[in-house]
Amino acid sequence: MIRVLVADDEPMVRRGVRAVLATDGGIEVVAEAADGHRAVELAQRHRPDVAVLDIRMPGVDGLRAAAEIRRTVPATGVVMLTTFGEDDYILRALGDGAAGFLIKSGEPEELIAGVRAVADGAAYLSPKVAARVVAHLAAGGAGARAERRASARRRAEALTPRERQVLAFLGAGLTNAQIARRLHVVEGTVKAHVSSILARLAVDNRAAAAVVAHEAGIVPPPEPFG
Questions:
Q1: Given 28, 31, 54, 140, which residue has the most CB atoms within 10 angstroms?
Q2: Cα(99)–Cα(12) distance, rounded to whole angstroms?
Q3: Roughly what angle, to the nearest 10 degrees, separates helices 161-171 and 176-183?
Q4: What is the three-class DSSP state of 123?
């Protein structure tokens, strides 16, 4: 059972998230919070597998809450809920170690897929979030965009062919187990490839590697939901 904490200052959003997650029999919402400070307290008390946090909340916002949860409850993965126009917040959360990023107006299936992926130690960028992050990172005109994409392709091409395959699947939000099934290898082999990819790309986490995959244009279609 995947145990989840939900934090958002809007009661209807919390109820909506809870209702969507309740459709998956393997997920249980164990606590709810209306602000970041309470979210940290509840995370420390319940030690959930995943914390789903709104990026902007009154008082202690989702970014500071995420950083504190990652510091004090490192086994809890963090999924950030965002809206359009919050690109800077997304980039800060990415740097602070958040592993999942979802648009509030996205499909319910994305919420479940994101929670499951992060619970399994993977990263999950909803397609809309990935597009926003890549567009934001490439800001500065056509020349800058082309250079960033070329740089991402060069970084990807420096990997082994198998590592490039794994990177592409990271960009699609697949877990180690899902990647192992696609490549017909054991999960331990995938873990070794992921560690090598992070080191060779000089990035800190799977979400940052996923951004490189999107910039390089090597992300395959995700697995069908279910």
A1: 54
A2: 24
A3: 130
A4: coil
Residue 1's SS3 state is coil
* Tokens found for residue 100: 């999942």
Give CA–CA dist 44/72, Å, rounded.
Answer: 7
Q: Same structural domain for residues 111 and 194?
A: no
By three-state DSSP, how is residue 60 classified? coil
**Domain endpoint, select from 81, 116, 133:** 133
Cα distance between residue 143 and residue 131, in whole Å: 18
HSE-CB for 122 with a 13 A CA cutoff: 25
- In sequence order, the 6+-apart residues with CB closer than 8 A to the CB of 42 are 5, 7, 31, 32, 33
Domain endpoint, select from 133, 164, 185: 133
The pLDDT tens digits for 178-202 are: 889 999 999 899 989 999 999 999 8
Q: Are residues 26 and 51 in the same domain?
A: yes
Same domain, 121 and 191: no
